[in-house]
Amino acid sequence: MNKKLTILLSVIVVFNSIRYIMAIQGGSDSNYDYVMLAINLLALLFFAFSLRNKKCEEK
């Protein structure tokens, strides 16, 4: 993935994570919100590690 696409996707995932956090704080008892939040957080970790690995490979 190129860097611009990675940044765009990570911004989308951050906004989705914020949305699910706000839904959970608002009193949602749906398991869907918890699962989607977990998936979004895993995606953020994946993006962070992929950016870190690219920087290590460039050195």
Number of domains: 1
Report the uncertain regions: none
Please, how many helices? 2
- Which quaternary structure do these chains form? single chain
N-to-C span: 18 Å
- What's the average pLDDT? 85
Number of strands: 0
- How much of the sequence is in beta strands? under 5%
- Provide the succession of SSEs: HH
Rounded radius of gyration (Å): 14 Å
Structural class: mainly alpha
Please outline the major beta sheet. none
State the helical fraction.
over 70%
Outline type: elongated
Describe it for me?
This protein has 59 residues and is mostly helical. The chain has one domain. The protein contains two helices and no strands. The protein has helices at 3-25, 31-58. The longest helix is centred in the C-terminal third of the chain and has 28 residues, at 31-58. The mean pLDDT is 85.
How are the SSEs ordered, and which strands pair?
Blueprint: H1 3-25, H2 31-58
Helix pairs in contact: 1-2
Which properties best describe this structure?
59 residues; mainly alpha; 2 helices; 0% strand; membrane; transmembrane helix
Short description:
Keywords: Membrane, Transmembrane, Transmembrane helix. This protein has 59 residues and is an all-alpha fold.
